[in-house]
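A quick aside before the break. I want you to see a complete sequence-to-structure record at least once, exactly as it would be stored in a machine-readable document. Don't worry about memorizing anything.
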Amino acid sequence: MWGRNAVGVCRRTGAVVAALVVSAGWAGLAHAQEAPEGSAADPAVNAALVKDIEAETDESATEAGALSLSQAKAAKGDLTGAAAVLERYLLIDRNAVEPRAEYAVLLCRLDDVSSGQFEGAKLASEVPDSEALGRVKEACGGVADLSEYTAKGEAQ
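That is the input. The structure line, written in tokens, reads:
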């Protein structure tokens, strides 16, 4: 008799222990999924980031706003951010002279000289002999020769 009772008790104890292990595991997973306060997964941080991005987008919707925001970012040392602001604006107004010139200069400062020179070549075809083009030539060491490109900007 003792044998059957001992086996039954062991089975029940094993089941209880297994249930406790599983619940502890689920609790650990749930805890691991909680975002630490102040991290990128924290909803408050995400909301603040979205608010900042929306404000920046609104500010850079005009040529003057884009140039101002870009200059502020460059002054803080964020050259990539400054270039991104101008690149977004150039999607809106691809014929804007000053934003394109500043974008070209920033690309050259970021050591992407060939792209800066290409942007300068676009300026040279639109506004030759302009002050903006002179700044690009000075910063980038000249501009690219567009004769190796078709009218659509594709390499031949």
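Two observations worth writing down. The chain has two domains: 1-32, 43-148. Confidence is low (pLDDT under 50) at residues 13-32. We'll return to this after the break.
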